[in-house]
User: What shape does this take?
Amino acid sequence: MNKKIVIVGGGTAGWLTAGVLAAEFAGGVEITLIESPDVNPIGVGEGTWPTMRSTLKRIGISETTFLRECSASFKQGSKFVGWRTGEPNDFYYHPFSLPPSFNEVDYHKLWCESGDVPFDQVAGIQSRLCELGLAPKTITVPEYAGALNYGYHLNAGKFAALLQRHCTEVLGVKHLLDHVVSVDLGDNGDIDAVVAENNGRLEAYLFIDCSGGRSLLLGECLGVGFIKCDQYSINDSALAVQLPYADDSEEVASTTIATAQECGWTWDIGLASRRGVGYVYSSAHSSQDQAADCLQHYIQSTAPHVSEQNINIRKFDIRPGYRERFWHKNCVAVGMAAGFIEPLEASALALVELSAAMIRDEMPENRAQMDVVANKFNQVFQYRWQRIVEFLKLHYVLSERRDTEYWRDAVSENAIPGELREKLLLWRSRPPYLRDFMQVEELFPAASYAYVLFGMGFVSSSDFSRKSDAAKLQQMLREEQKKFLNYQKAMPGNRELLTSIAQYGLSKV
Assistant: This one.
């Protein structure tokens, strides 16, 4: 294969896509990434899924290097605070580790019989370890391996810089800092070339649009429409700030903490060197000043050492939705050029990984094949975007909160996607299980739905019970409790592990 690929736009989406493709084709494909010298990354702190471990390993970046250079920390899932009632002690976890033998064990029945024990504690040990501030591994565990499943929190700007250096110095990606001033189309509607201010025409077999929400190639040039999802996701604004730790001994949270507020929710992401905090809200229900006051209140309650005069709050607009098609002609969009809903559950980088991996695995040999691949790609990602809209909405519709107009609108029957409404009807009779979902690579498996459903107090019919071997079940529960006690003794705190990695590094084998 001897083809040229041009990626328009850098950032995490552009450089991660470049790395995935360049590592696979190892010189057989000429990859050029062009990005504007005037665009700066947001850098509020981002979360990944566990899939990022295999992605980084495959493109050849060591975990030690990644953790050190990106101020990264371990993420073991998400903690949702105040989403059900807003009362004290209202929280639940969506951990990354799936319940053992989930499709064979009736965890719903176990939970109903457990009294006041949260579902996430019935279904596994990870949430209990997160509450104790413990890491998912020890320093003796090799790179990218873990006793518990984990992803990362990272500094997006530093991550893009690491990827850029690795792609250009190790993987042979050509990097151009230049402005795209026009796009040349062929008679068949394909993109023949993008024209750069200083580098002229850049021709390619395939163009990858990583230009962010502007969607320069797929949206502006090729005219692919945008499907709005604001009827399901009413949050259209966000404020973000970077906060220092009180000192080097302050613990680093290993979950994203999402706290429900009057007109939205705050995120709290603990990096190795600082916290990234923000407020996602609806401008129809809150002014920017009111949102800033809410964010300030959260900051003062969680970081009283930070002076209001020493923080810089930045505002971002959110346009919930995604493209009608993601691959059209010889152009495919990745990242925010393809769409965005909201940062809840951190699906953005996971979609970049999945998009880049499918482009890599399905790279067409010729132009005729490209239309077939594009059709397949569009079907897969239309399904995935619909599931994202559905899963994110699930966090809202089960809330018992009616204390503000925002929450009354968020739980409105008219704001529930049709397929989610049908699933909720089924789940009143039985818990979710694997056949409720159609794809092998589901973004959110049945267990993820169960964590949110039962974390929010949803109860399926008590008449349903999945058959299971009682003796085998009791043995499994004993083993899980033994594992918890062992991990409780052996696992370091997150801060302790990150400090050790910074000093000694992780084992390569």
About this structure: The radius of gyration is 23 Å. The mean pLDDT is 93.
